[in-house]
Write a structure and sequence with these properties.
Shape: globular
Largest sheet: 5 strands, parallel
Structural class: alpha/beta
Oligomer: single chain
Distance between the termini: 13 Å
Number of strands: 9
Length: 262
């Protein structure tokens, strides 16, 4: 028997690079720079060792919630008798993926639109692109798991719309109304969902805001500072460091005990 875990780079077993962006003084200019990062014992590996069950880690850097749930769904359908438990760590709801997504993810700046787009370019499509995509993916994965009597534990790892949505409160309120009114909202089984419905305004929570960011300088990879061409470059990487992965492991292990799944 095995445990299936799916998520983005906060879950992926091979997140060993980080990206910083330079901001130059001669106007606003971005330049991506990739640097090596230490390899940590990620939380799915810790859970596997603790429970003494093999873990299939489907976490992929840059993955959106469609891809996160789809990878788990496809694996379960192909191996239903071998799976004891499924754990889903949801990502940013703005990440759009398509049916032809690859194992390496299908994420880019072009399909990671900001909350402003609810009222602009994606106004008519915002419901399908942002809300339906995540809620439907959760529901479909839960349905598959129920068919094979597999508990499906779901939690929101990252903030649904990034860390600073409140700068556009009128759009944020509109988005929350769409979430609450979405038909999938009531169809989702709440039994094994942690922090539902994920938004503080709806009395939910995300892992990153409630736990990881309580002391982000302790739990996150942190600041990388260097000088290039006389310019100071600084970037705070919010991905979990080793203590961060330990925190996630302890969190999910505690929740599994509450659900009486271990």
């Amino acid at each position: 028997m095995e445990i299936v875990i799916t998520g983005d780079s906060f879950t992926a077993p091979d997140y060993t690079i980080y990206k910083i962006r330079t901001f130059l003084r001669d106007g606003f200019k971005e330049e991506d720079i990739w640097k090596p990062m230490p390899t940590y014992t990620c939380w799915p590996i810790q859970l596997s060792k603790h429970l003494q069950f093999p873990v299939i880690n489907l976490g992929t850097g840059g993955a959106g919630n469609f891809g996160i749930c789809k990878r788990a769904t496809d694996h379960i359908v192909k191996n239903p008798k071998n799976i004891k438990l499924c754990i889903v760590a949801l990502s940013d709801w703005r990440r759009k993926e398509h049916t032809d997504f690859s194992r390496g993810g299908n994420y880019s700046e072009e399909n990671h639109f900001d909350v402003q787009d609810i009222d602009k370019k994606y106004k008519k499509k915002s419901k399908a692109n942002l809300i339906d995509n995540t809620l439907r993916s959760i529901y479909e994965l839960q349905t598959i798991c129920k068919q094979f009597d597999i508990p499906c534990v779901v939690f929101q790892m990252l903030e649904p719309l990034g860390m600073s949505p409140y700068r556009l409160k009128h759009l944020w309120k509109k988005f929350l109304i769409e979430v609450f009114d979405n038909p999938y909202f009531e169809m989702i089984d709440k039994k094994y969902i942690i922090g539902w419905p994920f938004f503080q305004e709806l009395n939910g929570y995300t892992f990153i805001s409630k736990y990881l960011f309580v002391n982000k300088k302790r739990y996150c990879v942190g600041d990388f500072i260097q000088v290039e061409n006389g310019e100071l470059v600084s970037f705070f990487d919010t991905h979990p460091n080793q203590e961060g992965h330990n925190l996630i492991f302890n969190f999910i292990n505690k929740e599994l005990k509450k659900f009486e799944l271990i």
